[in-house]
């Protein structure tokens, strides 16, 4: 029997089958690539959200930690994965906004190799100092720093990190001459600020919150447009005169380029529902995270803005990691 002699009832069957197959996603386990080690903030967020998304999608989501090279290893892996919606990636400030300027060959193209699924959360940055620094607000901190005979040192989790870029932007915005002291991770940097080895740093709410509440770090100001829930007593840098200054470590979800739009839509709906769940809200509040659910288009626009903003800082400062 040739194509032209197929009975009409077969066409009817095909017409019903094709949409059914198109709407079947997901058909199996979804792999969520997290480009950081297990146990860190990004990993914790992914596991909370994955647990909630599984309830909506009806398929398990397995976290695959692929840390290294400032997220490049995990991002390059995900960029080459099959584009059917069954592989997604935690993509953040480094992955989508900074690495293409920091590395000659990051191993992927941030603007071409991924399609946005949706934003998840952002970690507001807080300017903190050792408690012995004689300043309780931005005005006093700037006066103290400018009175020092040498550039004031600041700690970061590493060169090119969101914390580093935030401080370079702060330097440009205030005219301060500063000395970068990069560490291998946020924890050792914070410990040295507490110990007085370096006087200050920008720390995200997830890492610095407990130390601020315990009085081990003194908060000068938060780099967000308005005060943050859970940190309401910390004034913004904006309200202290540093107009328009914002700095976050943020993250969202992307999928490999050419992932079907229907799959992206289903992933986005499940992601937004997960972010708005009671479990995620509770966990985010404990970590000091700001939930920022939205559409793929909104994530794309946000990432483009961040890429332009931090690309200018990196180029102006000549920061390179290879």
From TrEMBL:
Q: Which SUPFAM superfamilies match?
A: Periplasmic binding protein-like II
- Protein name as annotated: Tripartite tricarboxylate transporter substrate binding protein
Q: What is the lineage of its organism?
A: Bacteria, Pseudomonadati, Pseudomonadota, Betaproteobacteria, Burkholderiales
The signal peptide here is 1-22
Q: Which InterPro entries match?
A: BUG (IPR005064), Bug_dom1 (IPR042100)
A Pfam family that the UniProt record links to this protein: TctC
Cross-referenced Gene3D superfamilies, in alphabetical order? Bordetella uptake gene, domain 1, Periplasmic binding protein-like II
UniProt lists the family membership as follows: Belongs to the UPF0065 (bug) family.
Q: Which UniProt keywords apply?
A: Signal
Oxidoreductase as a keyword of this entry, yes or no, is no
